[in-house]
């Protein structure tokens, strides 16, 4: 499958903005030197300064994040939707306009175009909302379904106005699973990103109903180039590396989606 290939080596970008989005934040940066990404691709990010535990300590590994929006081409700027969940993401959360951000990407296999006559249904869970934003930007009439833990996380849906929302606690939208919102019929195609349990529910539903589904799987990635084999997942045809063979896989390739 055709994909945008990243140039060898990381490049230093300037952070152009940071804005809060409930439990998440959106980090934007200028990327004039890199190629334009495709929906579903990801970048390895690292702060240019203080990227590590402290003096004489080893630096953090770069963190893999799906690109949420490509503002270009007239203004070559990328947006990433992040959540402060540990020391690496906390350092990224501290970045402000003018700070430096190391970029490696775009990497990985993107979403493929939906089949003729099929309405794309985008299904996201939590931080898995991010790649659906840039995907929705390329589609004419997608149905967007997003699931979150509660109201604070549901602010992530602001990146996709018009999305239907489900929350675990019922504080916003449907009280229950986001997969409850998937419409009946065989004239749809599912494109999903989110936690493993959600993706397994989408995969299982697609198998039962004979629907095509593309799943952007989440995994911890150390290199992004397929060298470390840290992101392998089992498929019907053997193991694949998500960073080069994914992160987007056809649901039909999988017996099940496992936690990673």
Structural features, described:
There is one protein chain. A hairpin with a 6-residue loop joins strand 5 and strand 6. This protein has a domain at 11-107: Translation factors (Elongation Factor Tu (Ef-tu), domain 3, Beta Barrel), CATH 2.40.30.10. The longest helix has 14 residues, at 196-209. The chain is an alpha/beta fold. It is 14% helix and 33% strand. The chain has five helices and 16 strands.
Characteristic terms for this protein:
single chain; alpha/beta; Elongation Factor Tu (Ef-tu), domain 3; seven-stranded antiparallel beta sheet; seven-stranded mixed beta sheet
Write a short abstract of this structure.
The chain contains 5 helices and 16 strands.
Shape: globular
Structural class: alpha/beta
Secondary-structure element order, N to C = EEEEEEHEEHEHEEEHEEEHE
CATH class of the domain at 11-107 equals Mainly Beta
Low-confidence stretches: none
Span of the ends, CA to CA: 25 Å
Annotation field: number of helices:
5
Average the pLDDT over all residues and give the rounded result.
92
Q: What is the tally of beta strands?
A: 16
β-strand percent reads: 25-35%
CATH evolutionary superfamily of the domain at 11-107: Translation factors
Biggest sheet: strands side by side, in what order? 4-3-7-1-2-6-5
What is the name of the CATH architecture of the domain at 11-107? Beta Barrel
Helix percentage? 10-25%
Look up the CATH topology of the domain at 11-107: Elongation Factor Tu (Ef-tu), domain 3
Largest sheet: 7 strands, antiparallel
Radius of gyration, CA atoms, in whole angstroms: 18 Å
